[in-house]
Protein 1
Amino acid sequence: MNDALIISNIVLWIAVLALLLVVLALSRQIGILYERIAPMGALMMDSGPKVGEAAPRFELATLGGSTVTLGGAKPKSTLVFFLSPTCPVCKKLLPILKSVRKAEAQTLDIVLASDGDRPEHDEFRQRAGLADFPYVLSSELGLKYQISKLPYAVLLDSAGRISAKGLINSREQLDSLFAARDLGVASVQDYLDHGHTHAHPEHA
């Protein structure tokens, strides 16, 4: 009887140790998998003005009746967010933009940009509660940056240079623009692909 109890305890401990080894192995594999599929950040399209270049200068009328200047030196950075009233992802990101605008009010201005018929945008601006954002309509602006997909964002630094840009589908991708600026790289995607070797021209 005692021998059977001892043997069963030994078998149980062997099973527990084997299970522990399996858990450790799985944890390691999960870590490797996470590194491989880590968020790549905003997808930067290889078109339009490049990161590190001076942003093209635009002086545009807003739907609210004021004027906004994009490009050139400013006290704050500027995030130009290209959107459309018919873009579902754009609408999903609006609460995030409002949150970022509030949190970064001391250092960041956010400008909404689109094109098309003004009545549609006036209605969308009112319905979505965007009266506090400068909202401009300019096909020239979209053409200059060669915007082909939405939502898309361009981050300009206070000197008027393009710090980062890319296709935005989530809060993480939006945050990746600020991370790319802080790291001094063209994009988080570029940083993950090539490490620390690619920096903005002004940081080289």
Protein 2
Amino acid sequence: MPKRALLEHRPWLLAAIAAATVYFFVREWPIGELWLILLKGAGVGFLAIYAWQRHASADGRLLALVMALSALGDMLLELDFVWGGAAFFASHLAAMSLYLRNGREAPAPSQKALAVALLIGTPLISWLFTRDEGIALYALALGGMAACAWMSRFPRYRVGFGALLFVISDWLIFARMGPLASSALPGLLVWPAYFAGHFLIATGVIQTLRRNV
């Protein structure tokens, strides 16, 4: 990476990692609800700035919107579960638009099969965890996002895997409402899986867009 690019753009990735890491360790501290909300949104929020600055194309702007809506969802979840879910629902729709604009030309049958499994299995498993129709509807968009990511031209083992991590993080949240209600596992894994998923998506998409300039 050229020195100028390193100075201008990589700090946003480092800032995102730093904010997400600090939030994970201080989220239970009595430092004030407002500060925790802002810190929580900063991790993916910095990824939105990274995407906006690294690629000025329509796809780059769309990726920045995806990240910004997720960051908004992070903060709104601390205030209202429904409003936070709505922001993430919008993020999934924006992500699907991005991935559909960048479809893979000749996907293998195994890729198609996994995409169908994600589209159907994500809302089904979410409903089995919660028995909540609203969450199942949200998870339909979540599964659609992951399926479209897997079928896109972006690298599957970065963007596709990042989308799978997003699905897993939400499944852990939903499992906390049911079979894992008394387990500490979701609390330990939800945030790392969620942020890592977004980090992989942001860097994977930008890498591909810049390579094809």
Protein 3
Amino acid sequence: MAKRRGSAARTRKGPVRRLARLSLLALAALAIVLVVVLVVILTRPGPPPIGPERPPTSPSKERPEAQPADCPDVLTVVIPGTWESSPDDDPYSPTANPNSLMLRVSKALAGQFDRSRAEIYTVPYTAQFRNPTNLADRQADYNVSRTQGYKRAAGKIIATNKRCPLTRYVIMGFSQGAVIAGDLASNIGNGRGVLADGDQDLVLGVGLIADGRRQPGKQNDIDPSPEGVGAEIALGGMGSIVPGITMTGPRNGGFGELEDRVQSICAPGDLICDSPTVVNPLQAVAKLANAAGNPVHAMYATTRYWEHEGKTATQWLYSWAKDVIDEAPRPAHS
């Protein structure tokens, strides 16, 4: 009986030993695979440098010596904020919202410059933000509004550049309009369209008030500049949680070639551009939907929450844009 028990024990140990050997071989193979993957990751070349480290570019095409007589020296593209525009508004005499913050800047510029020197174009778009936590809210989704605003602003620049290859550009916006203006600047600065890569020098400057994708230090932050980030960064990755509202996170590549030409104004406490990290997405979106009407966000035409050297945000933006246009090249006209 003892001999049979010993034989049975050896019989049982055989498969166990084989299983153990196979397990060790599998672990060894897995370790080799992980090492190979790690080596590939560590030795793979990184992304090309962004911003000042990028090599200088030259115009993508040879530019003529003159352009048509009706082309402006500078096209100033102005993008209003939420509830401050409409799709059928007149881009040269907007009336959709007489209290639009950007009107304080655009009207002053239009009064300062002849249209041949600076064409002031206010982008007409839906400019709405539907609150998904309010079933009675019938506004357009943020995605729809933002996309329309971007396409119309980009379309104006593309059409102007095709006809007027020597025209320069100033781009500015407030709130939702600042997100759109910043996205235009990011794509242009990183060679992703609107203007051909190499034509970044045609953009003289970008002015943003309350940019929802603001990252401190990624542009010229005009003091006082808070430490918080834009709401779309604080709420980044929420597109799958709240339909119609895609919080797109930080801009890929920042502003690229245009980084030193972007001016950003954000009042401390403005949830649109100075947001803390959030935990509850639905509560955060409800706050964001109402943030456009909060006291801080609505006071950029006063010095109550933001001022620089005694100027309001709109006064500062006007003064900056005026100087940029004054110093712009004066191309010949045919």
